[in-house]
Design goal:
alpha/beta; five-stranded parallel sheet; 41% helix; globular; nucleotidyltransferase; sulfate adenylyltransferase (ATP) activity; ATP binding; kinase; phosphoprotein
């Protein structure tokens, strides 16, 4: 009867931990030097190295040279690097427990460093270094060569943000993308399977084809969009999640009006992969490099300055005077230094781009006391998850060394749902954060809704104005600010700083000078192309901006000639049109698009692409299918009815009628000139062309 496998003892695992750490730290040392550093005999080291090589933790290669004592070279594999990280956690957990027991024996009190639910809680001191997932520089160079032979996953922008914060410790205590057990627990309970508080699923979503090509236990390379290998992952779990359940539990509703739910259903891959990550290098950022800090870099900075109490201000908007007053009050209330910590990863579609925002922050940073204020950029992909997101932001700021965190009214709220109501209550985020703040290890500072009191020429918390009936209270909402920018109207100095307004006006000139896109959609034969041509001529007659027509047939011929008419290819064709339209809009031109564009989710994606840079006008050409069929000069509908054309919109493939387009035009018994004029009137009403 074969002997049953035995669980390695603590001594065995500690020895393996020391060997892997030594190989990572000094990969070119001789075996004799390595044995001396670890404190074991050369014979025992060789036995351990053979076992590690058989387990796939160490790669052995011949070494050329005259010194026979250095016949072999040893390097950690990706699996070895991941095992080193696991053993480091395990080693520290046990050592902290031993320290705590000794502390209790000598003093009669706990040290406060006991792991929470067996997860090492290193951060009682907010200035001590936290674990990262990177290997040493020398090991990283060798891992790059090894990882080049692995199957690769090209990360999307959100996944790059997640990977960066996994590797640099921003998502501590996570050691990689969640496995299935942790994912299910986080979705349902806001906790990892071991009980540690963690409210947001951090998963690697991939396509079905890529997932099917992998074996459990296989290592994969994680590459950025230029193909640079940032890290590796050992695939321990592969599953198809219930995304509707995830949406309900994490975001409160399975409603595509929520940007993260829309991403979940229409952008994210169908299959999730989980497993530990080994970091090779940070993603490269060419912008604002001096403002980007890892958690450990910020902690070292705070140590150098002697800061012990730090309040973080999370923002995805430009700073105005109300924000300045809010942060001043928060710092005074917490008796803390201030860290302005804006998100520069992915925020809500339609937000001001981070380049403009950072220029706004830098323009007003000198209005804060330099001795007690700092600014750093956070490359986080927000989910706009309201209450859960607030807790998540608190944990991230704790990892960055902060002791206090400002939680706003409707913190990280995505706006209105499909019924026109707010997704979350105004104070739900503050309530959930307050419930967990002791466990997070960071103290909440309530966001005060600041308004301007004209008679006193100062900002005050709205709910603390006792003589409100006798004073003039002024405020400008975000919607009103956008309107004033769009129409070139005055923005008063009591509301914002001139420096901020100047930066915003550079990026957001008056609407009559911005680029925009007119996007026609409707059945084949509805009259889209005819109206689009008429509109193009009218706009060219007016002059002032270049006009480009992206008609469906023209695009098919010049941009998408290799594509067929499957749903996947039609989506790809529309996304190409959207990309070109967004570039035209960004550069101040007018794009007129006239494809069928049958799917609502694809039209929404195009809208989001364009609205980063200018206005988007969706025009539904609402000609009935019967009228389109009657007009059909090419005989396409007849062929579709006979089954000779497959997946034909309106016959054998669905058309999602736009629920809320900016304009709906009827073409039956209405001439083309009138239809084009309706679009012109709408553009004038939107301020996009002069009246």
């Amino acid at each position: 009867m074969p002997a049953s496998p035995t669980t390695p003892s603590h001594e065995d695992e500690d020895l393996l931990f020391r060997i892997l750490s030594q190989l990572d730290k000094a990969p070119d040392a001789s075996q004799r030097a390595t044995a001396a550093a670890v404190g074991i005999s050369l014979g025992r080291l060789n036995a351990q190295l053979r076992a590690a090589a058989e387990a796939g933790l160490v790669k052995v290669s011949a070494r050329a040279g005259p010194d026979k004592r250095q016949r072999f070279a040893y390097a950690l594999t990706t699996r070895g690097a991941a095992e080193k990280i696991r053993l480091t956690d395990q080693f520290l957990t046990r050592k902290f427990a031993e320290y705590d027991a000794l502390h209790a024996e000598l003093t009669g009190t706990t040290s406060g460093l006991v792991p929470f639910k067996y997860r090492t809680k290193l951060m009682q001191n907010n200035l001590a270094p936290i674990p990262e997932l990177y290997v040493s520089y020398d090991s990283a160079q060798k891992l790059k060569v090894e990882a080049a032979e692995l199957k690769s996953h090209d990360l999307r922008p959100r996944q790059i943000c997640d990977l960066e914060l996994l590797m640099n410790g921003g998502f501590n205590p996570l050691k990689g993308f969640l496995n299935e057990e942790d994912y299910n627990s986080v979705v349902d309970t806001m906790r990892l399977a071991d009980g540690t508080l963690w409210p947001m699923p951090i998963t690697l979503d991939v396509s079905e084809d890529f997932a099917a090509s992998l074996e459990i236990g296989e290592d994969i390379a994680l590459r950025d969009q230029e193909g640079v290998i940032l890290g590796t992952m050992t695939v321990t779990d592969r599953w198809e999640p219930n995304k509707s359940h995830e949406a309900e539990k994490v975001f409160g509703a399975d409603d595509d009006a929520h940007p993260a739910v829309n991403y979940l259903h229409n952008t994210a891959g169908k299959i999730y992969l989980g497993g530990p990550v080994t970091g090779i290098q940070q993603p490269v950022h060419y912008d604002f490099r001096g403002r980007r800090d890892t958690p450990n870099e910020l902690r070292a900075y705070f140590r150098k300055l002697g800061w012990r109490r730090i309040v973080a201000f999370q923002t995805r908007n430009p700073l105005h005077r109300a924000h300045q007053e809010l942060t001043f009050r928060a710092a005074r209330e917490a008796q803390a230094n201030l860290l302005i910590h804006p998100v520069v990863g992915m925020t809500k579609p339609g937000d001001v781009d981070h380049f403009t925002r950072v220029r706004c922050y830098e323009a007003v940073l000198d209005k804060y006391p330099a001795a007690t204020t700092s600014m750093s950029l956070l490359n986080l992909a927000m989910r706009m998850a309201g209450p859960r997101e607030a807790v998540w932001h608190g944990l991230i700021r704790k990892n960055h060394g902060c002791t206090h965190f400002i939680v706003g009214r409707d913190h990280a709220g995505p706006g209105k749902n499909s019924a026109g109501e707010d997704f979350y209550g105004a104070y739900d985020a503050q309530d959930l954060f307050r419930e967990h703040q002791e466990e997070i290890g960071i103290e909440m500072v309530d966001f005060k809704h600041m308004v301007y009191v004209q008679e006193r020429a100062q900002y005050e918390p709205n709910d603390e104005i006792e003589d409100r009936d006798n004073v003039t209270i002024l405020n400008i909402s975000g919607t009103e600010l956008r309107r004033r920018l769009a129409e070139g109207l005055e923005i008063p100095e009591w509301f914002s700083f001139p420096e901020v307004v100047n930066e915003l006006r550079k990026t957001k000139p008056p609407r009559s000078k911005q680029g925009f896109t007119v996007f026609f959609t409707g059945f084949s034969g509805s009259g889209k192309s005819t109206i689009a041509n008429a509109l193009m001529v009218k706009l060219m007659e007016m002059g002032g901006r270049p006009v480009t027509l992206l008609d469906g047939d023209i695009v098919r011929k010049n941009l998408s000639s290799e594509l067929g008419f499957s749903k996947e290819h039609r989506d790809l064709n529309i996304r190409r049109i959207g990309y070109v339209a967004s570039e035209i809009t960004k550069n101040g031109g007018i794009a007129i698009c006239a494809p069928i564009a049958p799917y609502a989710t694809t039209r929404r994606a195009v809208r989001e692409d364009v609205e980063q840079f200018g206005a988007f006008l969706e025009v539904h050409v609402a000609t009935s299918i019967e009228e389109c069929e009657r007009r059909d000069r090419k005989g396409l509908y007849k062929l579709a009815r006979e089954g000779k054309i497959k997946e034909f919109t309106g016959i054998s493939d669905p058309y999602d009628v736009p629920a809320d387009p900016e304009l709906r035009v009827e073409t039956e018994n209405v001439d083309v000139d009138n239809c084009a004029h309706q679009v012109l009137l709408k553009l004038e009403n939107m301020g996009l062309i002069a009246g």
